[in-house]
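Worked example 3. Consider a protein that binds flavin mononucleotide.
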Amino acid sequence: MKNIILTCLLLLLSTGVQKVQAQSKETNILILIHSQNGGTYTLAKAISEGAVSYPDTKVTIKRVPSINPKEKINAAVAKLSAATIEELAGYDGIAFGSPVHFANISADMSSFFGQSIPIWTARSLEGKPATVFMAAGSGAGREAAIQSFWNTLAVHGMIIIPTGLMGTDKLDKTTPQGNTPFGAASIAHADGSGPTASELNLAREQGKALAKAAKGLKTQSSNQNTPATSDKTISPDINTVVKDAGIVIPPAPKPVGNYVPFVISDHKVYINQVALQDGKILYPGKVGTTAITEEQAKAATYQTMLNVIAVLKEACGGDLNKVKRCIQLTGYFNTTPEYTQHAGLMNAASDLAVKVFGEKGKHARATIGAVSLPVNSAVEIQAIFEIEE
Ligand SMILES: Cc1cc2nc3c(=O)[nH]c(=O)nc-3n(C[C@H](O)[C@H](O)[C@H](O)COP(=O)(O)O)c2cc1C
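Given these inputs, the predicted complex is written out as structure tokens:
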């Protein structure tokens, strides 16, 4: 009897622990900005404060890549890392910040979304919460600007979080404020001060509202995905992991010479790929010169790894669940002799392997600088995987 009670207690406790573990999973929020003079960045930091005030929330602030590398941007903003369009799908919620430019979003933000066709057609952002905040000058057209941003997010199927009457209880009515019911906004003041305390307060509330929505949606979707008799030792379905993370596996590139895309020997798959995307090399050129930025080289590396996974999928007869582990990745980078940051570039591939295959994606790795690579690709990856029979 004693044993039965003890077993029941242990069972109850372990279910409780599993529930706590499932619920305490962090909500990952991205704050993605363009900011030339730092106004949008100041609002972004208040959005972040609000978001992290909500339990279990982790925030990353990134900027969109600059479309004009010669443009002088605020030093603190320049230090932020640039996001890639593909990574958006990996977050549970996104706050987008842009300066108001002619009652619209800035050209840099617009150009970033111009690259979003693959994640749009893959419906990678569908159902994810998003919110918009903007820094303005005079404030002219700021509400229209936020709503124009909403159009793009609606086409991506995102759930838009507006601010409504948030922040009105603490609104200082003695000074003009940029606050809108659509999202936080700041207006410039003649003495150069700003954003105001009321504007920052609204930004904090907006950040918190986004984190709350993201947490709720994440919990709901993980509850739906959890079978009634959940067994934590069961490996997740890789095809679902890929889909949920919004990773778009392209068609496997076809060989252009007297070779095959992969060889399987003794349960090992051997694959080599370059940065082909839709039949063309993505961001060709030598890293360390003005031909290609580090962010572009990372995007090319990510694309190359996607191609590796596309070929691997073919080798597994279409089922990535057959992958037992990633054994080794070797990254060759087309660089100047002085270049030393190969490891940082290669992380774009390694991170993707781990994102897709979890523990099984962890691998041994080498990175090498090359004097040139085929078709002027910035990167080539050699990969070895072990698969089931
Ligand atoms: C090309 C351009 C167009 C602009 N259009 C507007 C506008 O329509 N309304 C407005 O209030 N401010 C406008 N501004 C001012 C910016 O919105 C303002 O300087 C903002 O604070 C910049 O944000 P940042 O500090 O994050 O770069 C414009 C600025 C530029 C450079």
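Take a moment to read the result before moving on. Residues 25-223 form a domain with the Rossmann fold fold (CATH 3.40.50.360). Residues 35-40, 99-103, 135-142, 188 surround flavin mononucleotide (CB under 6 Å).
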